[in-house]
Each structure stands twice: as structure tokens, then as C-alpha cells.
Structure to design on (437 residues):
């Protein structure tokens, strides 16, 4: 069920009368809007209808609803951040795919946290050219670690240097989120993460995000990025030379920013609800993200790309995995039966920018083989792996991008929880041995 339903469709779906429908609207249980003002017909959001159906099911069979709520089931928490509907997703009502192509990651962060992208100038003006001395000293011992390992090891140390992080007012928490995001960007830049080789296939044409100059906020250069913005810094450290790759990195960060109550964001909300500061919230999110059923799938995708090696071996590599009964990562998503729009957009953008890069050609071959064998389309994990392969980024870059982007989401969820001022504490349905009478 997606989009909108007519009054007749709603009454049939819920098994109610028209008068009951109007009662639901008057009580605020069901929103309505004009479908055709000339005929004064109205339409009703399908998500509201679905919510009412689940309430009906709860009354009829409460245990069934509770049992499935934590597994892609009934919505558990109110949130004004991300909507997934009709094969698309939206940040505070704005199409995330459009934002990925037209806005900087800083402006999207400001929009996500405070509902006003022009706040980006103030939030990120504080800059972050260096890390605290204590963090710099510790980082010297982690030169060979992956970015994720550095994030997890050094975020608690950075928290010690930032007492303002305990101010949970929305704007102040957003400032803390900006400091965390900028510092994590610096942690991802050491020379140990420089590219292994130069890309010998320059872009044939630039991504749409590079076209034109936009007014307002941070996007003021002819490439759409401030000189020391997050995407530009990553590009200079990871892909020296022409700045076209900054557009792709920027888009990837925005597409990774949030995805409703995924496991890391739910974890982040729980931690924030306990009154923990944003550094602890992000650290908790990182711990969940690294799991192989979440962002950690990128490690398996990197292995798959290495295993295939060349485009002509892509189908054989997937077939071998199927014969061995192994999971093939990077395809399908339960919320997108017609294909993950994040993976699709990244694949399209990378192909347009670097059509002849070896990593691009390999990714396209794997995507074609995967769709043929699995009947599923590439998801976000595959899109990130494609980007990293095309730009020849080192191991660990894909999940680092995921973590940097998702830090925006974790911070936004924390701000909502600080304002809600409640403790997330579900009850367990006990299935163990009963005590003696």
C-alpha cells in the first residue's frame, strides 16, 4: 500500500462506513486533502490507513503485533525525520535523492537537524582543521587502522575535550553534531588511507551536482562545495587531482544520512533516551553499524569484488557462491521491492562520471549477473562498493562513508529524543522456564 486512497478504497480497506471514516478524520486519526477541488473529492494517505489497520489487528490479536513489531513490523516511535514511501525516501519532507544531487552534505545536515538548511553556515563555521592534541597523539599509533577503527577508538577521547556536548538543547546538540562530523572527517584522512593507484580513466562528463552556482548557504564554488567542506576534504585526501569525485562522495554521504529506524539509528535513539551525550550516541551507532547485517556488509562486498576480479568473471563468481550455499551481499532490500533507490542512484552517477574505470566495469557486470541470478537489484551497500571501486579507494572506505553520512542521522535522532525526554524501555515477552509455584 503506497501513495493515497480514495474514500471508497479506505472504507473497503478498513471495513468501515463513510460516517466512521469522517469520524476518524475529525479525531485526527486519518489525514485528508483535496484530490480534486472542483469536484470536492478528497484523498487519504495510505500510511495512515495502514496504521489504522494495524490498530485494528492489535485489538484483535495484540500478541501477534507485538511479536512482529521489532522485525520490519509496526512503527514503534514517532519521528519527523525520514519517510520511506512509494519506493522513495524523504528527509523532513524533501526527496533525499534530489538533495543528494543538488545540496552539500553540510546543508542537508542542517536541514535534518534543525529544519533549516541555511543554518549550515553557522553550524559548520567553527571549522575543524586539527584534532585535540591528545587525540592527535593517540592517532599516531593507529596509522594502519581502518577509519572505522579510528572512529571507535578515538571518539570517546574526543568527548573528553568537549564539555559543551552535554548541552542537549536542539541547536546546541546540532553544533555538537557538526563538531563530531568534522572531527570524524579528519580521522578518515591520514596518509594510510591514500589511494593505492591513480585512476587512468578520467570522467567523461560531470555529475549533475557540479553544474552551476547556487546562492545561499555553503554551496558557493563552481563545483558546489566550499573549499574545506567535508566532501572536498575527502576528495583531496582520497582522490588527488580533478575534483569531480567530490560530487560522488557528497551524494553518497547524503544518501547514507538516515533511513528511518534501522538497527543503528534505533540503537542511537535508545542511548540518547537514557540521557547520554551525542558522542556516546554516535559511538553506539558505530558499534551497530559495523555488524555484517548492517554496514559491515561492505566488507563482504569488497571481498566479492576482489574474488570476481574482472567483468568477464562476474557471473562465475556469483554462481560459485550460490553453489557453495553462501550469501551474496549487495542485492535486494525489504523496503524497496522494486529496487533500492540509493543503490540505483549511486550506480548511475558513478557510471556517468567514470564509465571506463575498471571498478565501474566490474560493478556493472556484477550488477547484471546479480539481477539475472538473484532477481534482485543492487542496494546501497552495492552502490558504495561501486563508488569505492571506481575511485580505487582502499579497504574500509565504503563503511567509513556510511558511518560519516549516518552520523547525521544518529545526531538527528538524538535531538528528537532529547526533546521527547522519555526513556525507551520495551518489555520482554518471557519464554523461559516459569518459577515454581
Amino acid at each position: 500500500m503506497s501513495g493515497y486512497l480514495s474514500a471508497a478504497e479506505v472504507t473497503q480497506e478498513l471495513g468501515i462506513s463513510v460516517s466512521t471514516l469522517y469520524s476518524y478524520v475529525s479525531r485526527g486519526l486519518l489525514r485528508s486533502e483535496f484530490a480534486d477541488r472542483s469536484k470536492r473529492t478528497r484523498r487519504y494517505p495510505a500510511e495512515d490507513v495502514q496504521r489504522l489497520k494495524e490498530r485494528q489487528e492489535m485489538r484483535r490479536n495484540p500478541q501477534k503485533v507485538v511479536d512482529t513489531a521489532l522485525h520490519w513490523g509496526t512503527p514503534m516511535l514517532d519521528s519527523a525525520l525520514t519517510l520511506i514511501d512509494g519506493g522513495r525516501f524523504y528527509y523532513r519532507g524533501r526527496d533525499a535523492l534530489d538533495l543528494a544531487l543538488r545540496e552539500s552534505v553540510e546543508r542537508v545536515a542542517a536541514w535534518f537537524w534543525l529544519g533549516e538548511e541555511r543554518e549550515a553556515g553557522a553550524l559548520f563555521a567553527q571549522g575543524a582543521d586539527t584534532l585535540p592534541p591528545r587525540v592527535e597523539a593517540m592517532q599516531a599509533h593507529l596509522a594502519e587502522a581502518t577509519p572505522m577503527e579510528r572512529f571507535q577508538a578515538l571518539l570517546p577521547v574526543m568527548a573528553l575535550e568537549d564539555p559543551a556536548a552535554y548541552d542537549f538543547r536542539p541547536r546546541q546538540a546540532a553544533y555538537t553534531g557538526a563538531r563530531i562530523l568534522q572531527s570524524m572527517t579528519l580521522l578518515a584522512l591520514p596518509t594510510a588511507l591514500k589511494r593505492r593507484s591513480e585512476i587512468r580513466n578520467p570522467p567523461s562528463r560531470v555529475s549533475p551536482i557540479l553544474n552551476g552556482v547556487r546562492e545561499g548557504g555553503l554551496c558557493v564554488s563552481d563545483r558546489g562545495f566550499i573549499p574545506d567542506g567535508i566532501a572536498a576534504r575527502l576528495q583531496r585526501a582520497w582522490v588527488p587531482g580533478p575534483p569531480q569525485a567530490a560530487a560522488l562522495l557528497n551524494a553518497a554521504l547524503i544518501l547514507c544520512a538516515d533511513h528511518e529506524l534501522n538497527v543503528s539509528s534505533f540503537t542511537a535513539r535508545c542511548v540518547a533516551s537514557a540521557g547520554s551525550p551525542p558522542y556516546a550516541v554516535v559511538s553506539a551507532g558505530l558499534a551497530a553499524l559495523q555488524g555484517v547485517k548492517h554496514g559491515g556488509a561492505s566488507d563482504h562486498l569488497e571481498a566479492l569484488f576482489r574474488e570476481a576480479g574482472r567483468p568477464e568473471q562476474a557471473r562465475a563468481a556469483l554462481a560459485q557462491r550460490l553453489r557453495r550455499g553462501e550469501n551474496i551481499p549487495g542485492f535486494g532490500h525489504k523496503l524497496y521491492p522494486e529496487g533500492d533507490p540509493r543503490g540505483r542512484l549511486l550506480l548511475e552517477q558513478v557510471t556517468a562520471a567514470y564509465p571506463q574505470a575498471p571498478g565501474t566495469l566490474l560493478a556493472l557486470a556484477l550488477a547484471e549477473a546479480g539481477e539475472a541470478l538473484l532477481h534482485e537489484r543492487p542496494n546501497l551497500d552495492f552502490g558504495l562498493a561501486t563508488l569505492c571501486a571506481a575511485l580505487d579507494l582502499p579497504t574500509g572506505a565504503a563503511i567509513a562513508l556510511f558511518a560519516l553520512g549516518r552520523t547525521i542521522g544518529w545526531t538527528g535522532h538524538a535531538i528528537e529524543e532529547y526533546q521527547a525526554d522519555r526513556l525507551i524501555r520495551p518489555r520482554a515477552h518471557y519464554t523461559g522456564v516459569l518459577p515454581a509455584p
